[in-house]
Backbone:
């Protein structure tokens, strides 16, 4: 959660995702009822320039690492939906504000989320293919976070 006090940012309660997860407060596509902010203003020529708040958005992957990719068909995002990481999904947006889940890319929700995860995706799109590398916990891993594989996946989009 962004905590620096600036006049162009709305006040956001300070609480880490970990503490929210421990309290069981993941609510739908939000964390503890909070939506992630959309910020703009990245400027390579002036990296010291503060980002500008646009709005809070209903983004499906804000609780852990995700990847957003711009294509001629709009924006695609690859990540895990809260609260667990044993389902890796693909979402689409035309404007970075309104997101729709396209499909679940990997779904092992039938296995324990304590020991199964496809998380921290790194992804890119080439033509009509989505290429994903995942930090993966599978096949008798100690727990979901301490992965025992790095896996490569290719999907049609």
Residues:
């Amino acid at each position: 959660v962004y905590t620096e006090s600036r006049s162009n940012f709305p006040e956001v309660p300070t609480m880490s995702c970990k503490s929210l997860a421990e309290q069981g407060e993941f609510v739908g596509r939000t964390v503890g009822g909070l939506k992630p902010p959309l910020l703009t203003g990245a400027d390579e020529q002036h990296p010291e320039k503060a980002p500008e708040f646009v709005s809070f958005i209903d983004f499906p992957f804000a609780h852990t690492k995700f990847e957003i990719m711009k294509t001629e068909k709009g924006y695609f995002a690859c990540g895990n939906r809260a609260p667990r990481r044993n389902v890796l999904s693909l979402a689409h947006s035309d404007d970075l504000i309104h997101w729709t889940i396209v499909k679940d890319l990997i779904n092992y929700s039938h296995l324990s989320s304590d020991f199964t995860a496809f998380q921290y995706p790194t992804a890119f799109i080439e033509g009509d293919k989505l290429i994903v590398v995942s930090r993966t916990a599978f096949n008798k891993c100690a727990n979901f976070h301490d992965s025992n594989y790095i896996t490569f996946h290719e999907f049609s989009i």
User: Anything to note?
Assistant: The chain has a mean pLDDT of 80. The radius of gyration is 17 Å. The helical segments are 17-22.
